[in-house]
Amino acid sequence: MTERISKYQRFKMMNPIIQFFKYIYLSIKVLVIVAGGHGGTRQVN
Amino acid sequence: MARIVVLGAGISGHVAASHLRRKLSKEHEVVVVSPNSNYQWIPSNIWVGIGRMKSKQILFPLAPLYKKKHIDFKQAKAMTFHPEGDQTENKPYVLVEYVVGDKKGQQEKVTYDYLINGTGPKLNFEATEGLIPGQNKAYSVCTYTHAEHAWENLEALIKEMKQGKKAKILIGTGHAKSTCQGAAFEYILNVEQELRKHKVRDMAEITWISNEYQLGDFGMDGMLLSYKGMTMKSHEMIEMVFEDRGIKWILGSAVNKIEDGLAHYENLDGEFKTETYDFAMLIPSFSGHGFKAYDKNDQDITEKLFKGFMIVDADYTPRPYEEWSVQDWPETYQNPSYNNIFAPGIAFAPPHAISKPRKSKNGTDITPAPPRTGMPSGITAKIVADNIIDSIKNGKESLSHKGSMGNMGAACIASAGYGLTSGSGVSITTFPIVPDYNKYPKTQGRQLGKTFGEIGLAGHWLKLTLHYAFIYKAKMKPFWWLLPE
To answer: From start to end of B284-409, where are the E strands?
Structure first.
């Protein structure tokens, strides 16, 4: 097992307070990307 | 009055039926035909497979909901398609056979004005010799019953490990052309965390086996994504996670035979190898259901409707990988031969893979099939429903709603462990799903700001939120339609 994620990074990843704000940020970002629209790709003449 | 028949009550079938019912007046009939009695929120099967959720938490019965919402429900399976009717029936119909109750075994011609095929994939376990859920120590999490069974046996293995048994766990894909690597990815990380929680992690060797050329391919040719202010390739991110969790990996593998505790596979170098295991979870290949179609004179016209899955408005011209284009992908999911038949979700035949096709030195095609997860399934089903609604209301065909997977974003909120304070998730979004190399030539076909990754507890909370939100939506509770697909 190689420690690829440092203890400090792990602390940030698992800290409930930091992650609460991350959760809000992620929810909005995911919503914007997914609900932000979709459409076709073909040119219509 | 129009009659819309929806085949299947999974994510795409249920989304289409619920939007049709909400937006069409009661004079129009919405009929759902599905052999399943329950709706299941498939993404949470992962948690059933590690014993953290009961199956009753991820499903609910369809019949009472459909009765309340005035959707006609037939618990039956589709048998044959008759898009022109036949000598005795003028209207197009689908021949169905009831699977339960007094009508069990009875067949009925279900006529329609519009048909939505949301039958999803057939879990093609038989394509891999010996890959049978629950046999040869190999399991699946593709359905809630499979996931329950997987947990029963994993739990038994954990008990043996507590007694001192060393165990090998193998998770990944069980066929050269499997898709849904994301589900296997979630499961391997959840199993790893459960072993740590049970304090037996050091007793287990966990291995990822996959048909992907690189980690993080996910059947989407991998991606270049933003991660903590850096631009990173998805395989680098997944390698980091696997190395950190002590998970080994075998890539470019076509599992071709399963025996008791033995997975035989061929790799891209053309070598035939065998991996031993005490517990395996391998995703099978997906296939169409093998439906047949007939014209008015009972002549076989299956090739007009099916190419494995259903033929839609994609460009199926065979071309080399270098000539694949995002424009090959369908936009309206309408069958070109019969314009009142649509196939959203997993039911449509993709024009080709998304990942670069690769062959082993022996010529075996080892390429992940393109994934079509819950999010695009829901979005494409809504597009189809909206076009049918417009066509009915306008009295003429309307196809103004379009949604190509080449112009659509998706979020993969992959659980990496369950627990309100100890859980984790790998959140990856991608835009578009099918890379558009002309539009985004310098970023591997995707828009960087909208293609990003995050790892942490927030991802677990987000997946849990989606679980409750989408079950609320599926139950058609007040204002359900405000939740996006």
So the answer is: 285-287, 292-293, 306-307, 309-310, 341-342
Of A4, A5, A40, the CB nearest to B407: A40
Residue-level length of chain A = 45
Complete DSSP assignment for B83-139? TT--SS--S-EEEEEE-SSTTTT-EEEEE-SEEEE----EEEGGGSBT--TTBTTEE
The predicted pLDDT at position A42 comes to 84
Mutate to test the interface with A, among B429, B436, B463, B467 (most CBs of A within 10 A): B429
Per CB-CB distance under 8 Å, the chain A contacts of B383 are 38
What CA–CA distance (Å, rounded) separates B390 from B303? 29
- How many Å is the Cα radius of gyration of chain A? 18
User: Is residue B54 assigned to a domain?
Assistant: yes
Task: Tell me what the mean pLDDT of segment B6-30 comes to.
Answer: 96
Q: What is the CATH number of the domain that holds B376?
A: 3.50.50.100
Task: Give B400's pLDDT tier (boundaries 50, 70, 90).
Answer: very high
B334 within some domain = yes
Structural domains in chain B (count): 1
Neighbouring C-beta atoms of residue A7, cutoff 10 Å: 8
Give the best residue of A4, A17, A33 to mutate against chain B (max B CB count within 10 A).
A33
Q: What is the pLDDT of residue B221?
A: 92
Whether residue B41 is contained in a domain is answered as yes
Q: Is the pLDDT of residue A45 over 70?
A: no
Is it the case that residue B361 has pLDDT exceeding 80?
A: yes
| B411:A42 CB<8 A | no
Q: Which long-range contacts (CB under 8 A, 24 or more apart) does B472-478 make?
A: B474/B14, B474/B18, B474/B39, B474/B41, B474/B60, B475/B60, B475/B65, B476/B18, B476/B22, B476/B65, B476/B69
Higher-confidence residue of B448 and B304: namely: B304
Distance from CA of A12 to the nearest CA of B (A): 8
CA distance B379 to chain A (A): 9
- Give me B423's structure tokens: 């859980």
Nearest to B194 by CA among B42, B52, B45: B52
Mean of the per-residue pLDDT values of chain B? 95
Q: How far apart are CA B241 and CA B261, in angstroms?
A: 26
Q: Which of B142, B127, B126, B417 is nearest to B283 (CA)?
A: B142
pLDDT one-digit tens code per residue, B401-417 = 999 999 998 888 999 99
Which residues span the domain enclosing B380?
3-123+289-398
The yes-or-no verdict on residue A44 having pLDDT over 70 is: no
pLDDT tens digits, B432-453: 999 999 999 999 999 988 898 9
The answer to whether A36 contacts chain B (CB < 8 Å) is yes
Task: Calculate mean pLDDT across residues A5-22.
Answer: 93
Test B404 with A4 for CB contact under 8 angstroms: no
